[in-house]
# Entry
Amino acid sequence: MKGIVFTEFLEMLEEKFGYSFVDQIINEANLPNQGAYTSVGTYPHQEMISLIMSVHFHSQIPVDDLLRTFGNHLFGVFKKSYAVFFDKFTSAFDMLENIENHIHVEVKKLYPDAELPRFETERTNDNCLKMTYYSDRKMAALAEGLIASTLEHFHQKGSINIEKVENEGKIVTFIIKTEG
# Structure
């Protein structure tokens, strides 16, 4: 997992809970590198799981809520750092439909060793997009937070519902509906 995910997760925690909380979480997660991450480094995703579980234990915030909130945070970081990706699209569906064949292609150019989730999309009508997430990391709630922020970015009101979860969360199908 790319270091930017770790550094931004810790940044979000510091903003919401303070430095002492982050320090406690890092110490209790018993990380091999004591939480010293660089944004361009690559780290085992199990370390992220350890951090998330420690935050969950101390805050009692459900794991999926933490991941959705982090997805919202990460969207803001991506929007600021990679504005060129956002300028190419005119709607949330346009952007979501291009994650796999455009955005992830560009990400791989920047970070060739990045292990990205895979997405398939199917537009069922003008106001409904079926989007399937595939990842061994089982972090679909993070993707859901990013999807929700995409709708907000394009000022589109809508809903995101989980239609199906398969293979213990490695495959999750979202139904995204927008209003008129």
